């Protein structure tokens, strides 16, 4: 019986060793080795901008950024049309502007600068007037 136990133990150890060596090895990643996901996004952005320049769609990276931004804006407007929220791209542009204004007014209320959306609208108008006068 002790011989049977030794054979069983030896078999179990051999099977365990075989499984251990057959298992895929996983490397241990320390906190310092982890990549910042924002860095990956920035690398992707840099590559996209460089591709735009290399294809001749823009002469500089700054121009490429403008091209990429315009494409993103056009895609967001097209999404509004595709979803049925707007019938035309012109209507989608107006809707997007209305939503952006509503969001900025709500942000003023949420920040506590004003108590109501009406006050937020007045404050935004005053700020726009002040900015236009500042340019003169």
Question: What are the SSEs and their pairings?
Answer:
Elements (H helix, E strand, L loop, with lengths): L1 H21 L14 H18 L6 H22 L6 H23 L5 H19 L1
Descriptive account of the structure:
The chain is an all-alpha fold. The mean pLDDT is 83. Helix content is 76%, strand content 0%. The chain contains five helices and no strands. Helix 2 (37-54) crosses helix 3. The chain has helices spanning 2-22, 37-54, 61-82, 89-111, 117-135. It starts with a helix and ends with a helix.
Indicate the proportion of strand residues: under 5%
Residue runs with pLDDT of under 50 for 5 or more positions: none
The helical percent reads over 70%
Number of helices: 5
Q: In one word, what is the shape? A: extended
Question: Mind summarizing the main beta sheet?
Answer: none
Radius of gyration: 30 Å
Structure summary:
It is built from 5 helices and no strands. The chain has helices at residues 2-22, 37-54, 61-82, 89-111, 117-135.
Which key features would you list for this structure?
mainly alpha
């Amino acid at each position: 019986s002790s011989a049977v136990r030794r054979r069983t133990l030896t078999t179990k150890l051999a099977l365990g060793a075989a499984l251990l060596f057959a298992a895929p090895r996983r490397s241990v990643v320390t906190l310092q080795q982890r990549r910042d996901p924002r860095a990956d996004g920035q690398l992707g952005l840099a590559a996209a901008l460089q591709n735009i320049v290399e294809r001749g769609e823009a002469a500089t990276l700054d121009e490429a950024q403008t091209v990429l931004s315009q494409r993103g804006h056009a895609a967001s407007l097209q999404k509004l049309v595709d979803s049925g929220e707007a019938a035309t791209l012109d209507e989608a542009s107006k809707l997007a502007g209305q939503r952006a204004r509503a969001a900025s007014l709500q942000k003023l209320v949420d920040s506590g600068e004003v108590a109501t959306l009406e006050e937020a609208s007045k404050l935004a108008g005053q700020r726009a007037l002040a900015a236009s006068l500042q340019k003169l």
